[in-house]
């Protein structure tokens, strides 16, 4: 008996879209005011047989200022970095470190068990582990055609 392999014909288009978004993020200057311009943390997304892993660089951010949500297959990381009053009054010659709101949303590449997602934050690195839903629990429903 021949075995059929599942494939996703749109997978390459998602990769192209993600790469295009990344290029736009690099070359597009922010047209909003500093208060309304959310920065995007740098992230790595990887997976093995059992988990999807997301790592995000958040240097200088306090753990209590980080918010994580998972809605459907979209993981959103957001929060705010705060600056002390002393730093706000300084006369800068160059200011490249941005403060304020940050946000990043990513599509998770595999179905995950939302109740078992865990995250740790240490030394400016947020590590999120999203356990994949076992294959046998993924439901395929046959629809009758009338």
How would you summarize the topology of this molecule?
Blueprint: H1 11-27, E1 43-47, E2 51-57, E3 66-71, E4 74-81, H2 85-89, E5 100-107, E6 118-122, E7 125-131
Antiparallel strand pairs: 1-2, 2-7, 3-4, 4-5, 6-7
CATH topology: Immunoglobulin-like
Number of domains: 1
State the distance separating the first and last CA atoms.
30 Å
Regions with little confidence, pLDDT below 50 for 5+ residues: 31-36
Apparent shape: elongated
Name the helix and strand elements from N-terminus to C-terminus, one letter apiece. HEEEEHEEE
- Write down how many β-strands occur, each being a DSSP E stretch of 2 or more residues: 7
Main beta sheet strand tally, sense and closure: 4 strands, antiparallel
User: How are the strands ordered across the major sheet?
Assistant: 1-2-7-6
Computed Rg: 20 Å
**CATH hierarchy: architecture:** Sandwich
Report the portion of residues in β strands.
25-35%
What class do helices, strands and sheet pairing give?
alpha+beta
């Amino acid at each position: 008996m021949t075995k059929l392999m599942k494939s996703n014909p749109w997978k390459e288009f998602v990769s192209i879209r993600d790469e295009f978004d990344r290029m736009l993020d690099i070359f597009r200057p922010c047209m909003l005011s500093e208060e309304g311009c959310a920065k995007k943390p740098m992230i790595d997304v990887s997976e093995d047989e059992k988990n999807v892993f997301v790592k995000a660089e958040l240097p200088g951010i306090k753990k209590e200022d980080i918010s994580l949500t998972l809605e459907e297959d979209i993981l959103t990381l957001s929060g705010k970095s705060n600056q002390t009053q002393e730093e706000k009054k300084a006369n800068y010659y160059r200011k490249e470190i941005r403060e304020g709101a940050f946000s990043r949303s990513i599509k998770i590449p595999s179905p995950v068990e939302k109740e078992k997602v865990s995250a740790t934050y240490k030394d400016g690195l947020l590590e999120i582990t999203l356990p994949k839903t076992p294959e046998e629990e993924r439901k395929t429903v046959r629809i009758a055609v009338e």
